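ASSEMBLY PREDICTION REQUEST
Request ID: AP-0331
Submitted by: J.K., bench scientist
Number of chains: two
Total residues: 860
Priority: normal
Notes: Please return the full assembly, not individual chains.
Input sequences:
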Amino acid sequence: MMRTRPLKVALLGCGVVGSEVTRIMTTHTDDLTQRIGAPVELVGIAVRRPDRVREGVPAELITTDATALVKRDDVDVVVEVIGGIEPARSLITTAFEHGASVVSANKALLAQDGAALHAAAEQHGVDLYYEAAVAGAIPLVRPLRESLAGDKVNRVLGIVNGTTNFILDKMDSSGAGYSEALDEATALGYAEADPTADVEGFDAAAKAAILAGIAFHTRVRLDDVYREGMTEVTAADFASAKQMGCTIKLLAICERAADGRSVTARVHPAMIPLTHPLASVRGAYNAVFIEAEAAGQLMFYGPGAGGAPTASAVLGDIVAVCRNKVAEATGPGESAYTRLPVSTMGEVVTRYHISLDVADKPGVLAQVATVFAEHGVSIDTVRQQGKDGEASLVVVTHRAADAALSATVEALRKLDTVRGVASIMRVEGE
Amino acid sequence: MMRTRPLKVALLGCGVVGSEVTRIMTTHTDDLTQRIGAPVELVGIAVRRPDRVREGVPAELITTDATALVKRDDVDVVVEVIGGIEPARSLITTAFEHGASVVSANKALLAQDGAALHAAAEQHGVDLYYEAAVAGAIPLVRPLRESLAGDKVNRVLGIVNGTTNFILDKMDSSGAGYSEALDEATALGYAEADPTADVEGFDAAAKAAILAGIAFHTRVRLDDVYREGMTEVTAADFASAKQMGCTIKLLAICERAADGRSVTARVHPAMIPLTHPLASVRGAYNAVFIEAEAAGQLMFYGPGAGGAPTASAVLGDIVAVCRNKVAEATGPGESAYTRLPVSTMGEVVTRYHISLDVADKPGVLAQVATVFAEHGVSIDTVRQQGKDGEASLVVVTHRAADAALSATVEALRKLDTVRGVASIMRVEGE
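STATUS: Completed
Returned structure:
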């Protein structure tokens, strides 16, 4: 039953992920052949710097001409692990035009141009798979696209960036400040020299866009995702979180509105209860919590980055698209039929934890409470603490629209008796 | 692009899972149509008791003639949620013969006759999908068969039975004994009137056989799985576990031997460290921890049983096999090419926690230590406690073959100074 013509795979990029993909493809060839139902062969690896030493990578496969490689009509599958928008996008499009299916780990490209790429794949009757683009080795795209295909997903709540989780976990466990924790993450190789994409939430926002699109069967682009980084989280915020039985995580949150007629996607730091399964996700690990109508609450946990875990996800997709090639079929493509609009952050319903420095005199609480009432925001708990003529007031609200909550904070800032807003943090996962 | 002839689905069984499958298929028809790429229609529901009131189930679909239903040549997909070996096996086989793909939630049947059923499906060019057979709504079969298809799984460690996890969690948190915790589980509907299949580990053993087969690409039958129930776990065992920083879980453990030349599958209670992600799985939840060469450590968590969660998994499979029908293809079938033999429990490498009641006199520890040494079992820690002329000795071993460990325990029982073996428990997850 086994076909004998080998499936030919071309690899674009040979960094930490690409070299691990090469290692597995060249050392586990028999297993891959059995699992695909046909032999599989790596026929070329496009790199920018051909002279770099790459242990275990066959030198005869290396080329600098990526375009010529994806134009080869005998290539069945192109694996793109270059990252970034160009030349990745052009190379993938050219691969489609020449009949190749594509496996990509490129979250930025998929979050920005997923719709056009899916359309191009469908037009040419080939596959576009990208399990590795979200949370490394953790199966998420496939469970959402396939396992939950008969269910209705209402919420996705995830820790999808290992760098920021490492930093926040460090701040939580050691009481360190942000800079100190970032320095340790950099020293240990968890943070890049320029950590902007991670700490400002850009990386997580791209993943949120991809997850929201798959979960709700609609189109969500990177621009649709509200984004706040975690560089302003302080040791004092962690102390406040502890008093509430919470910790702080940078969360990617994708939600269907209560009326079912729109969706939202956002990335920001938030307090979550210590009893929530995401609270105990340590170090650079990732985890994604999914709430679906019939399935209930599911969680997927594992290493969200790194060469070997990402290569595992890429290889799973290579096996899948190769099987499809053997069967002369394609897997599920983009599913965006619900066309649900993406609402703005102001419409998101959430809770705020607000810490105010106030004058220590009678009537302050009444003034503050009036401001909340005027904005239609209901207060859950208030805690007052006096210290040398000054006092602090910690307010946790009930659920309200983010626009109303942020307008409340702006109004509080204008009160004479409010000396300053020490911290504002959303509360999620309850 | 949408085909117009509807895919026809026949349902066998209409208990808690079947009626939820019916509810979703009849109320979420438009979503299913969009996700499949063709309309889908429920054309018949075979039940034993047609007169039973089933809210929301269209009466005109009910039939008592299951055989006639699966013989209908216009049926594309048969969904089997009857359970048990017969008549499920004959009905599935007949469905294959008439060209239908099958979605089954039947762990007992798949663990016993999976190989023959997979062969029959392949012979007739149809699919056999069974995500719901293992751990309800938690995607496990698909991640193992597809997401990790390019990786090498070395270990699967899971809590795959909600009833026993509820009981053990209750014993842990309240100090209750087994009987008391079982009574509560029964009162709350988590345990059946006859809890044997759950508490004696039969249910978990069937799931272990299925998981081991998929994970290691070999055939593992129910008979190959070593099984110990959890009815003899005591409050004293939990107290010992706590002293070690552990809790006790009923685990399904599937492992590849260190030399890679055999596999094992087993179900038994075991101590696991509180720091292990499985330790915090509460109540009736299930979770499965997977260790793979490239992916590293992954965990999947969710509701392991119940009508709606199981229906979610069944529906995901219905969408998948319907898509395959539309594409005139089949998904991945059985993958048992490694033909790795299944070793016996004696060959499993594990650690023992042994609690002995001994005479409180000098030389006892030396005697006991000699017995361990004679069996080649190395001791990790020993704790001695005296109490009124008697003493207890708690020994935790290093890793050794289970046969050597159990022979050690037998030899200890024969020592004059050993009054009794108070408890023996394996230690896992380190």
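REVIEWER COMMENTS: The mean pLDDT of chain B is 94.
SIGN-OFF: pending second reviewer
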